[in-house]
C-alpha cells in the first residue's frame, strides 16, 4: 500500500466540514437578502391614516408589502412612508412610473367608498408603470415616489369606460355623483376639470351597462327636487331618493342604432330633462296681441293641460309665441 496516497486521502476529509459550512452560510445569506425585499419611500401630503408595521401595500387586492416606518419629509410639509416590498414584486414595482395612492373610507353625500378599510384599516394601492414585463424592465429603477391621496383618474377605466360630459359649471356636479338609469347606478363621476369656459366632468360607465349609451344619448342633471315658480303657478318635481341624497345624472337614448360608445366620447350635460328637448314638441303661434299671456301660461284642451308658453317675442308687427306641447299630445 502506498503511504503517500493514504496520507492524501486522509488530509482531504478535514476540508469537507468548512466547505459545507461555507455553502450553508452563503445560502442563508442569499435567502435572508432575497426575502428581506426591496426598500422604497413614498411621499404623502398626509399620513394620519398610516400605521407603522400595520399598513399594507396592495396590488389588485393582494398584499405585496408593508409600511415599516414613517418620517417627516425634508420639506416639513409632508411625510415619507418607508415601505418594504416583497422581493418577488419589488423588481417590478420599484420602477419609474409606478403609482401609489391611499385607500381609506370616504363617506359623504356624494361618495361612499373604501368601506372595506373600516375593518382592515387603510392601505396603499399600487400599479406598475406598464402592463407587460418586457415594458416594465425597460423602465428605470426608482426608490422614491410621490403618492396620491386618491385613485388617479386613469385607473377608473378598470371599472368601465370613461366619457366626458361638458357643462357650464352651474350644475354642482362633484366627484362621486351617480349616473342613474331608472334609479339604478350604472356609473359615477370620477373627476372634474376646467377647460377654457367649459367644465369637463369625467364619468365612468360600468362595463355591463355600456350598451345603454350611444351617440344619440342625452344626459341631464337630476337634483332630486325641482321647483318651477311662474306666474301661472308653482310646479314641484321630486326625483329618486338616491339623487336627492347625492345628486345624480340621468340620460335617455333615442336611437338603438346610434354610434357605439368609445373612450373619451363627449356629450353635453343639460341642466334638466326639459332642456334636452325630449319631453316636448315646440309650436309657434302668431297673434296681434299677447295681452294676458306670460311665460308659463297653460295651453288647455277640454280641461287637459297640453303644455305651456315658453317665450313671447315681437317680430315684424306680430307677436310670436313659442310653446312646448307634451309629446303625448303632439298629434293634436
Quick structural summary:
The chain has helices at residues 3-12, 16-36, 87-93, 117-120, 133-137, 241-246, and strands spanning 38-44, 56-59, 62-72, 79-85, 99-103, 106-107, 112-113, 123-127, 144-146, 160-167, 178-181, 184-195, 198-206, 217-222, 225-230, 233-238, 248-253, 266-270, 280-287, 298-301, 304-315, 318-326. With 332 residues, it is an alpha+beta fold.
Rg result: 33 Å
What is the strand arrangement across the widest sheet? 5-8-2-3-4-1-9
Low-confidence stretches: 107-118, 234-238, 240-245
Overall strand count: 22
Number of helical segments?
6
Helix content estimate? 10-25%
Biggest sheet features: 7 strands, mixed
How far from one another are the termini?
A: 127 Å
Strand content: 35-45%
Shape call: elongated
Helix and strand succession?
Answer: HHEEEEHEEEHEHEEEEEEEEHEEEEEE
What's the average pLDDT? 79
Class from secondary-structure proportions: alpha+beta
What does this structure look like?
The protein is α+β, with helices and mostly antiparallel strands. It is 16% helix and 42% strand. The chain has helices spanning 3-12, 16-36, 87-93, 117-120, 133-137, 241-246, and strands spanning 38-44, 56-59, 62-72, 79-85, 99-103, 106-107, 112-113, 123-127, 144-146, 160-167, 178-181, 184-195, 198-206, 217-222, 225-230, 233-238, 248-253, 266-270, 280-287, 298-301, 304-315, 318-326. The strands form 5 sheets. It has a 7-stranded mixed β-sheet with strand order 5-8-2-3-4-1-9. A hairpin with a 2-residue loop joins strand 15 (225-230) and strand 16. The longest helix is centred in the N-terminal third of the chain and has 21 residues, at 16-36. The radius of gyration is 33 Å and the shape is elongated. It starts with a helix and ends in a 6-residue tail after the last strand. Mean pLDDT is 79; it is low at 107-118, 234-238 and 240-245.
Amino acid at each position: 500500500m502506498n503511504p503517500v496516497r493514504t496520507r492524501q486521502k486522509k488530509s482531504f476529509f478535514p476540508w469537507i466540514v468548512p466547505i459545507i459550512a461555507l455553502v450553508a452560510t452563503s445560502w442563508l445569506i442569499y435567502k435572508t437578502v432575497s426575502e428581506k425585499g426591496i426598500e422604497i419611500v413614498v411621499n404623502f401630503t398626509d399620513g394620519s391614516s398610516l400605521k407603522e408595521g400595520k399598513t399594507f401595500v396592495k396590488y389588485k387586492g393582494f398584499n405585496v408589502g408593508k409600511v415599516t416606518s414613517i418620517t417627516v419629509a425634508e420639506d416639513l410639509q409632508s411625510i415619507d412612508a418607508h415601505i418594504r416590498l416583497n422581493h418577488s414584486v419589488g423588481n417590478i414595482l420599484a420602477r419609474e412610473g409606478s403609482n401609489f395612492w391611499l385607500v381609506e373610507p370616504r363617506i359623504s353625500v356624494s361618495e361612499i367608498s373604501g368601506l372595506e378599510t373600516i375593518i382592515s384599516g387603510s392601505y396603499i394601492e399600487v400599479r406598475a408603470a406598464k402592463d407587460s414585463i418586457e415594458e416594465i424592465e425597460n423602465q428605470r429603477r426608482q426608490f422614491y415616489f410621490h403618492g396620491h391621496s386618491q385613485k388617479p383618474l386613469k385607473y377608473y377605466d378598470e371599472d368601465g369606460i370613461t366619457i366626458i360630459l361638458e357643462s357650464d359649471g352651474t350644475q354642482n356636479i362633484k366627484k362621486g355623483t351617480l349616473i342613474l338609469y331608472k334609479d339604478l347606478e350604472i356609473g359615477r363621476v370620477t373627476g372634474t376639470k376646467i377647460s377654457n369656459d367649459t367644465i369637463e366632468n369625467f364619468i365612468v360607465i360600468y362595463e355591463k351597462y355600456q350598451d345603454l349609451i350611444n351617440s344619440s344619448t342625452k344626459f341631464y342633471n337630476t337634483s332630486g327636487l325641482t321647483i318651477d315658480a311662474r306666474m301661472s303657478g308653482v310646479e314641484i318635481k321630486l326625483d329618486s331618493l338616491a339623487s336627492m341624497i347625492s345628486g345624480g345624472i340621468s340620460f335617455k337614448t333615442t336611437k338603438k342604432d346610434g354610434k357605439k360608445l368609445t373612450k373619451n366620447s363627449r356629450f353635453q350635460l343639460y341642466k334638466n330633462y326639459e332642456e334636452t328637448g325630449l319631453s316636448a314638441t315646440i309650436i309657434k303661434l302668431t297673434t296681434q296681441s299677447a295681452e294676458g299671456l306670460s311665460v308659463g301660461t297653460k295651453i288647455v284642451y277640454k280641461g287637459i293641460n297640453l303644455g305651456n308658453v315658453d317665450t313671447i317675442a315681437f317680430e315684424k308687427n306680430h307677436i310670436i309665441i313659442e310653446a312646448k306641447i307634451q309629446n303625448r299630445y303632439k298629434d293634436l
